[in-house]
From TrEMBL:
<dbReference type="InterPro" id="IPR057247">
    <property type="entry name" value="CARBOXYPEPT_ZN_2"/>
</dbReference>
<dbReference type="GO" id="GO:0005576">
    <property type="term" value="C:extracellular region"/>
</dbReference>
<dbReference type="InterPro" id="IPR000834">
    <property type="entry name" value="Peptidase_M14"/>
</dbReference>
<dbReference type="GO" id="GO:0004181">
    <property type="term" value="F:metallocarboxypeptidase activity"/>
</dbReference>
<comment type="similarity">
    <text>Belongs to the peptidase M14 family.</text>
</comment>
<dbReference type="GO" id="GO:0006508">
    <property type="term" value="P:proteolysis"/>
</dbReference>
<dbReference type="Pfam" id="PF00246">
    <property type="entry name" value="Peptidase_M14"/>
</dbReference>
<keyword id="KW-1015">Disulfide bond</keyword>
<protein>
    <recommendedName>
        <fullName>Inactive metallocarboxypeptidase ECM14</fullName>
    </recommendedName>
</protein>
<feature type="signal peptide">
    <location>
        <begin position="1"/>
        <end position="19"/>
    </location>
</feature>
<keyword id="KW-0479">Metal-binding</keyword>
<keyword id="KW-0964">Secreted</keyword>
<feature type="domain" description="Peptidase M14">
    <location>
        <begin position="168"/>
        <end position="473"/>
    </location>
</feature>
<keyword id="KW-0732">Signal</keyword>
<dbReference type="InterPro" id="IPR057246">
    <property type="entry name" value="CARBOXYPEPT_ZN_1"/>
</dbReference>
<comment type="function">
    <text>Inactive carboxypeptidase that may play a role in cell wall organization and biogenesis.</text>
</comment>
<keyword id="KW-0862">Zinc</keyword>
Amino acid sequence: MKRTVFVALFLLLLRAASVQISFKVQDIFGTCTLSQYGHYSSIDAIEHPIDLKQYEDNCVIRISYANDEPLKEFLLGSTSKSKSNSNSNSNITYKKWGKNNNQQTLDIQIDANSLGKLVERFPTMVYKMVIKDLSQAVYETFPLSKVPLILESNNDIHSFSEEVFFKEYRDIATINSWLSLLQATYPDIIKIEDIGETFEHKKLQVVHFSVPSSEIEHREKKTVVITGGIHAREWISVSTTLYLIYKLVQLYDTWPESKMLTNLNFLFIPVFNPDGYEYTWTTDRLWRKNRQQTPVPKCFGIDIDHSYDYHWTKSSDWACGEEYSGESPFEAFESRIWNSYLDETNQQHKISGYIDLHSYSQEILYPYAYSCNQQPRDEENLLELAYGIARSIRLQSGEDYQVLPACIDKDADLLPDLGSGTSLDFMYHNKAYWAYQLKLRDTGDHGFLLPSKYIEPVGNEVYAAIKYFCSFILSDER
Ligand SMILES: [Zn+2]
């Protein structure tokens, strides 16, 4: 009954908001799959979700910098004046995407002109083309269809979610409708809390998931916090957080007395950066920061994950750069709101676990990010838990996730400001005994532009990881 109400309400909302969403016919037998997207250039520009021309002539390449010190220095910018993510040295402009420390490779987004100059400057540079047609790759991450969705009224929330909602990435309006209807369907266990307003006056929302128990009081339970979307373009981290909520609801329906549900509270923030996320849907799919004004006119955005007040240092990146930290700690609206929420609810929640979802590179990062010289407490167990998470993922999907200290991933050993002020360090130091950052799929073939067909596989492998994480926390004596 409730589920029918949920679906009916959701349909109404979809229509009212005229959200363009549709049912994508899937070949359930998994036989041949042609891309259902035509080439974006064959479609009237007015039909494009955003201006795709901005990525024309851009590609993503993977450069191997092993055995080439000058190239490494140039790319990773260990010299003073460099800008970590958007490097305009010698008129060669590029944006850093991802790095593989084991393979010593760096993925960058670069235009044809700059690539030519880069090759001229480093004639022996070894690189491989990863994304040849960036506009097309961007285009293919948006929902395909524009036909309104029509569902039978007897669909329940589960078939609804599996058949439709998680088949595509969703914009913030659709996500918010889905969440508030989930709350309407499960009012006893799900409460959406508006914890503050962003620079652009969007709500920052926490999904509080807690199953009432007669045996253990709410504030006696350990709390697990899971956040997604701190970086706007990392859409898979948003869909995965939503998927985890959905899997817990499913677990509640089938096994409400499960220990994971009755003995733990969960706080989810699926869209930690609502302004930035919205911007990736309307203007620039590859935007990373939030959207607040900086001291430099026409430069917007602070890297939220560089704005926490724990070993905060001002970034060497300028205000227009992708890793700009702001001028002082907690200048980013989102981290400041989250910090006051944590202060206000300090008595209600005993936060024990924290997982911050990002992409890409398939890595499990443990504290600290700001320095490789700072030893995390209880390192042996911290590592054991990280390897357990990696194993759970491997057993679920066969995918490999590397375990490494966050400081290495962030190059804090090369440029000290790069790993400072992270959410991981802040939560680990102040709140959560066990804390990790998970960088989700893939290892670079699609990078930030992971196609939507991976939403469910990634959701399932992370759910396996979270189940393991929760059982570890439940058995932890602390
Ligand atoms: Zn990220």
